[in-house]
Design a protein that fits this description.
This protein is an alpha/beta fold and about 130 residues long. The chain is built from five helices and five strands. Helices cover about 40% and strands about 20% of the residues. Strand 1, helix 1 and strand 2 form a beta-alpha-beta unit. Helix 1 crosses helix 5. The chain is globular and about 35 Å long.
Length: about 130
């Protein structure tokens, strides 16, 4: 996690502006009273995800598995294969039955579309509090 007092940084990837907005609205700027505020870096393209992840500094990555032309599951697999200290990744799947694909991608969590704010929030908090990175 970020340094104490620093905001949590979430990379939020989707080729769909509406999906990125849904994630931000579902999570808000404060996940829980005992956690720091959240800041988002919205990304619409896979190459920009890779560029920003090479720079680092994110506490969590949310990738849209339904993004086009590059889906979040393939990006998740690439990030896990190429970044030694990769932050936790949550993949938004097309449906609940696609969670096995997120598992293949080595993402630590999956939440299906349509985005349920409670389910997404619980998954994000669980990942941010997890001691294993």
């Amino acid at each position: 996690m970020s340094r104490p007092g620093s905001p949590l940084r979430i990379l939020n990837y989707s080729s769909n502006t509406h999906t990125r907005e849904q994630v931000r609205l579902a999570l808000g700027t404060r996940l829980r009273p005992d956690l720091p505020e959240v800041t988002y870096t919205d990304v619409a393209t896979a190459p920009m995800v890779i560029t920003l992840m090479d720079v680092g500094g994110f506490d969590l990555v949310i990738l849209d598995g339904e993004a086009a032309p590059f889906g979040g599951m393939g990006i998740a697999k690439q990030l896990k294969d190429e970044i030694d200290d990769c932050p936790p990744i949550l993949v938004l799947t097309g449906r609940a039955d696609d969670a096995w694909l997120a598992n293949w991608s080595r993402a630590e969590a999956a939440v299906p579309h349509p985005i349920d704010p409670i389910r997404l929030g619980e998954a994000v908090v669980r990942l941010l509090r997890s001691p294993i990175r």
